[in-house]
Amino acid sequence: MDKGDSVGYDQVLNYIVGALRDTLGRVPREIRADVLEIRIRQARPLALVTVTGILFVTASGKPTTKPSEGYQVTLEDCRLTLQAMTRSSVYMVEDKLLQGFLTLPGGHRVGLAGTGYVEGGELRALREVGQFNIRIARQLPGVATPVMPSLVEPDGRFLSTLVISPPGCGKTTLIRDIARQLSWGKSGFWPRHTVTIVDERSEIAATWQGEPQTDTGPCTDILDGYPKTVGILIAIRALAPDVLVTDELGGSADVAAIIEAGAAGIAVLASIHGDSWENVQKRPGGKELAQSHLFRRLVVLSQRQGPGTLEKVLLL
Questions:
Q1: Is 245:161 a contact under the CB 8 Å cutoff?
Q2: Considering all CA atoms of the chain, what is the largest pairwise distance in Å, rounded to the nearest integer?
Q3: Phi-psi region of 197 (alpha: psi -120 to 50; beta: other; left: phi over 0)
């Protein structure tokens, strides 16, 4: 997949303050365009995950491959960053913190880690947040174009498709663009489809205050923040989609829900972590997924030639 520009990076800077923002603000523009993630870890060097690998950032903003030269993130950096990202109202987003992420305007997702408070075997609060993984949201319109002809019937109807990919290989970017293209339609190739996105982690549509921050098409409904099992059932009962879209299938409950959608005559577009269909079937729910024969197409991604490398499209 092609790299983007520095717009997303610049948007994220609005939610980082103090010395940390100053440091990141000095990073050269040509490096910003390559950044996939900003990694902030207390008492460790500030790092950037780029399309070519991991770089550390010196206090002057210069990229380096040496951790010892990187700006050392402080407790105050982490405290001020969390305040900025939650608008000083941590309690208002406590449910998101317990899920381990926040979504910023522009659809940028921030993974969080710290000290968990556990009661009765359940995580009740997240304290002393000292690690932030800021994933820069990237819209790459057209990235799905090479695979689209393989994913539709001759009459233009979409075939249920599973995208298989290790983390960080562009699966969310790909399914977002497939959903967009189906929703808009393409004259002479496929009609406009009614699409419902069950966006549990607010990554596909990147909804902010009720408004999607990405182009998901004119015929798309979004269930933002819904657990997959709940959102899928609501989509089946209330929204009558031609295509149901969801990201990162987990265990057997997620699999059972999408199988039910398929049984209702709805095409499914989903993704799952893995490096092959064979290994996916070894995961919880994977065997049931294979036995259901729900998916007609498998798209396998890797990082072999950079994020978003298309390994193959399998026809089932």
A1: no
A2: 59
A3: beta
Find out whether 63 and 52 touch, Cβ atoms under 8 Å: no
What is the model's pLDDT at position 3? 46
- CB-based burial of residue 44 (10 Å sphere; 0-12 exposed, 13-18 middle, 19+ buried)? middle
Which residue's entry shows tokens 């790092």? 47
For Cα atoms 238, 242, 247, give the angle at the middle one, nearest 5 degrees: 85
What are the structure tokens assigned to 53, written together? Answer: 């690998």
Strands 243-246 and 195-199: parallel
Contact 215, 204 (CB under 8 A): no
> CA 237, CA 230: separation in Å to the nearest integer?
11
Q: What are 57-103's pLDDT values in tens digits?
A: 999 999 999 999 999 999 999 999 988 988 756 655 666 677 778 88
pLDDT digits (tens, 9 = 90+) for 166-225: 988 889 999 999 999 999 999 999 999 999 999 988 889 988 778 888 899 999 999 998
